UniProtKB/TrEMBL annotation:
Xref: Pfam families: HORMA
GO CC annotation, single: zeta DNA polymerase complex
Annotated ranges, domain HORMA: 6-104
InterPro entries tied to this protein: HORMA_dom, HORMA_dom_sf, Mad2-like
Organism: Phaedon cochleariae (Mustard beetle)
Name under which the protein is recorded: HORMA domain-containing protein
Domain of life assignment: Eukaryota
Length: 104
């Protein structure tokens, strides 16, 4: 049985990516038609199938991963706004990242 080491930064980035997709789905930021249902972490989640939305989220998650790998990620802010004001904001605190997680 071999053990593959997975970076905690990769796990965190993947989790935040799933979270962002589901928040924008639940908040109806985009039409339901650009989302598909899938299972992740043993539950039903929604993921965008729109290339531009996915590219934007992907670029954000690259930044999350970069800072997590350097152990510089302290919190992630997710804000929804118009030109006039922020209408919803989420703040995710990152308390501790281990060097790696072992997966069997």
């Amino acid at each position: 049985m071999s053990t593959q080491k997975i970076s905690s930064a990769d796990i965190l980035s993947e989790f935040f990516e799933v979270l962002v997709h589901n928040i924008i789905y639940q908040k109806k930021i985009y039409p339901d038609t650009i989302f598909t249902a899938k299972k992740k972490y043993g539950i039903l989640v929604y993921q965008s199938i729109h290339p531009d939305v996915n590219e934007y989220i992907n670029q954000c998650m690259k930044a999350v991963n970069f800072h997590a790998r350097k152990k510089q990620l302290k919190r992630l802010f997710l804000c929804f706004h118009s030109d006039q004001a922020i209408f919803e904001k989420y703040v995710f605190e990152v308390l501790h990242l281990s060097d790696f997680v072992e997966e069997g």
